[in-house]
Amino acid sequence: SSSGVNTLTGSFPKSHSSHGSEFRVTGTPLSVDQSPDSGLVSTPLPSSRFQFALWHGLEQCDVTGDQLTCPRVREPSEDELHLKERDGICLERGRSRRREEEGQRWEERLQENWENCLELNLSYQDLGDPFQQENFLRILRRLIRVEKLQLIDNSLTSLSSVRLPCRVLNLHRNHLVCLRQLPKLPAVEHLCLSENAIGSLGGLGALGNSPLRSLNLTRNPVTFTQDYRAVFSCLPNLEVLDGIPKLPED
């Protein structure tokens, strides 16, 4: 779930908030007011109630996920962090509990509407918590019709468990070290992997049956290997590598 919330509308949370979308005052941004007797007094900002809000948890909000330009994968609330600490951060147990608690109402899933999203930008997410990483992957798995997907600078190390039907995928500046960590891409035509840490062409064959026409591997160690441009022999549909069209010697 993302937190692309517009706090300027004056909307208030729906009475049936979804999992993890409690609106807390503690630990939220504060404003500072002058007090005549004790100096400075900190009071919560009016928008603090929306800190952990889901956009579809707001009243009179009919925006669907496919209408969001750059949604954000929200951080966990204090209650969710406390729950992890109380359980000793038992990963498998936590995942099982989240799966049970993630029984979102059907109307909320319809409003998220990731299944009908054709173009999405999920770049610069700062996925520092396992809670965010799981929700990020959950969104990716629901993108069954996406055509253009931007995943720039997310510190991603592997997407091998995900299948993406997109024609254009941008994974610029992540932490991929081999091509086997890519998602399954049966329809990809344009793939950008620049500024990762890919050191070999192992796993390139998985893209051999795709209609891939352009591939960008600039600023990866693999570009310094001998016969690097032999990539063309593995990808019969490839026309452009690192911005350079296929040459006769390729």
UniProtKB/TrEMBL annotation:
<protein>
    <recommendedName>
        <fullName>U2A'/phosphoprotein 32 family A C-terminal domain-containing protein</fullName>
    </recommendedName>
</protein>
<feature type="compositionally biased region" description="Polar residues">
    <location>
        <begin position="28"/>
        <end position="42"/>
    </location>
</feature>
<feature type="compositionally biased region" description="Polar residues">
    <location>
        <begin position="1"/>
        <end position="20"/>
    </location>
</feature>
<keyword id="KW-0677">Repeat</keyword>
<feature type="region of interest" description="Disordered">
    <location>
        <begin position="1"/>
        <end position="42"/>
    </location>
</feature>
<keyword id="KW-0433">Leucine-rich repeat</keyword>
<dbReference type="InterPro" id="IPR032675">
    <property type="entry name" value="LRR_dom_sf"/>
</dbReference>
